[in-house]
Design brief:
single chain; alpha/beta; 8-stranded mixed beta sheet; about 35% helix; globular; M28_fam; transmembrane helix
């Protein structure tokens, strides 16, 4: 997850706090809380496969940052090879930055359908660290989803996209892999139903006080335990895809989930690849464990595999899969 000038100016902090509070109050007043039976997945996510992918992504000779291009390419090849085990439609989207070549990897299912959805996650890290939660968890979700989507009858084409260069120094620039991909879709008038960014889905805590907020009053609404996944969307005009995806995600009842409908002026809600789809007016949302509001290993060398809750991460993948196959 990229980050730039996080809540730095006082005015920005105030707007950030007010936006979160206002949104939280609306959720508290109007949000529906219903008990639902856990849905059975026709192809459940496999925790053994999940751990194997996490090991492959984090235990590398060098760190997978923008400077270590050979390592990024090796990770890209691993993703491409894994995708190729489950789909006949896999390829690289190559582009150059400062004379160096970088790659997105795209894997498609349901290619007989013209309208598509994009599920994306970035495979690069910030600096010299493993980046287990940020964002080996998101990429692992894509790899496991590829296995689960094989031979599924889909209503839409599904593109799983692993991006490069999400992290600084390229965050919020046109060099982000997700910007390159979103621009390609726009320039070619491709019919996109919507996009979901899978950004840090492996860190959970049940202890009281383990979940932070910009202001403490929000814990009255969301609770102060880091035991949920968050679905971040635009406050208004999110589009049918976003609403349908969130409904199916929650109805799967795989894991505790909270919706955060964020006003546009609130900082922090676009700290991932979905921001570039918003730029090109595609409906998009982010699936996240709330990043630095919970995981204090964020962008540190302590963001390691040992800190992850693989069991709950696997349930997040199940919920994403069920959302995809049930979309109408």
């Amino acid at each position: 997850m990229g980050l730039k000038n996080r809540l730095k100016p006082t005015k920005k902090k105030l707007i950030f706090f007010v936006g979160f509070l206002f949104t939280g109050i609306l959720i508290f007043v109007f949000g529906k809380k219903e008990d639902r039976t856990v849905q059975n997945s026709p192809v459940p996510a496999d925790s053994v496969q999940v751990k194997q992918h996490l090991l492959a992504l984090t235990q590398t000779p060098k760190f997978r940052n923008h400077k270590n291009i050979d390592q990024l390419n090796a990770v890209a090849d691993y993703i491409h090879q894994t995708f190729g085990m489950y789909s006949d439609s896999v390829g690289f989207q190559k582009y150059k930055v400062e004379g160096n070549e970088y790659k997105n990897i795209i894997c498609s299912f349901g290619t007989e359908n013209s309208k598509r959805i994009v599920i994306g996650a970035h495979y690069d890290v910030c600096g010299d660290q493993q980046g287990a939660d940020d964002n080996a968890t998101g990429v692992t979700a894509l790899l496991e989803l590829a296995r689960m989507l094989q031979n599924q009858k889909l209503q839409y084409r599904v593109d799983l996209v692993a991006y490069t260069l999400e992290e600084p120094p390229y965050f919020r620039t046109e060099n982000m892999g997700s910007y390159v991909h979103a621009k390609y879709l726009k320039d070619n008038n491709i019919d996109v139903y919507g996009m979901a960014s899978v950004e840090m889905i492996g860190y959970f805590k049940d202890e009281k006080g383990s979940q932070d907020f910009p202001i403490s009053v929000l814990s009255w609404i969301y609770g102060n335990k880091g035991d949920f996944i968050t679905l971040v969307k635009k406050f208004s005009g999110a589009g049918p895809f976003v609403g349908n995806f969130i409904d199916h995600f929650k109805e799967s009842n795989q894991i505790k989930a909270e919706t955060f409908p964020a006003p546009k002026f609130v900082g922090g809600v676009d700290y991932s690849d979905h921001l570039n789809y918003w730029k090109f007016d595609f409906p998009a949302l982010m699936i996240t464990d709330t990043s630095f509001f919970r995981n204090k290993n964020y962008h540190k060398t302590t963001d390691t595999l040992e800190t992850l809750d693989i069991k709950r991460m696997t349930k997040v993948i199940d919920a994403i899969f069920l959302s995809i196959i049930h979309l109408k």
